[in-house]
């Protein structure tokens, strides 16, 4: 599988990136997989590397709910919590967009990614040229900006105070991007910045019988 190089003037260049203004100024994007996934509504997922234990189970429950409800999720899936969520999401049938903080040209794909790419439900998206082979703090920051720019809303299970995820959340709020979090005491500062409690029904509408989901009072979502 080879990545496709799409320049800003190309008709397939994502509209969300054209409209992002100075928040993320890039001239090309590389894609691998089904680019039509970008035409639908997408929920961004970002979570700090160190995630308090009280949030972990709530995040797992929410990832399962998103999977079962068929919500398309976009993220870097690099932090431990994000990786666990990706594993859960790839067990479903919905679309997922992975944004590595490095080039995807000649990238060796994990075995778990190959089938969903072939099925047309996994897309890789990267703004980095072939020289960027390793993840750095700088490339991770650009990757997070890409996720924010592409997503219709941003789910942040946890953002460590003073960390990179908190910083990108502040920037996202500056461009009036909707930010959601889970209802725990450690996330109060996110709520104070305007983050809403995540409500699955806002993303999927009426929950179908086969979804077998229920929204908890705490604001997270669990299997029934």
What does this structure look like?
This protein is α/β, with parallel strands linked by helices. It contains eight helices and eleven strands. It has a nine-stranded mixed sheet, with helices on both faces. Strands 10-11 form a two-stranded antiparallel ribbon. Strand 7 (153-155), helix 6 and strand 8 form a beta-alpha-beta unit.
What about the largest sheet? 9 strands, mixed
Distance between the termini: 39 Å
Structural category: alpha/beta
* Overall pLDDT: 85
Q: Name the overall outline.
A: globular
Strand content: 15-25%
Taken in chain order, the helices and strands follow as EHEEHEHEHEHEHEHEHEE
State the strand order across the main sheet. Answer: 1-2-6-5-4-3-7-8-9
The number of distinct β-strands equals 11
Helix segment count? 8
Low-confidence stretches: 206-224
What characteristics describe this protein?
disordered C terminus, single chain, two-stranded antiparallel sheet, nine-stranded mixed beta sheet, 224 residues, alpha/beta, globular
Give a brief rundown of this model.
The protein is an alpha/beta fold and 224 residues long.
Set down the secondary structure blueprint:
Blueprint: E1 4-7, H1 15-18, E2 28-33, E3 43-45, H2 53-69, E4 73-75, H3 80-89, E5 96-98, H4 111-118, E6 122-126, H5 137-150, E7 153-155, H6 164-174, E8 179-181, H7 188-192, E9 196-197, H8 201-204, E10 213-215, E11 221-223
Parallel strand pairs: 3-4, 3-7, 4-5, 5-6, 7-8, 8-9
Antiparallel strand pairs: 1-2, 2-6, 10-11
Helix pairs in contact: 2-3, 5-6
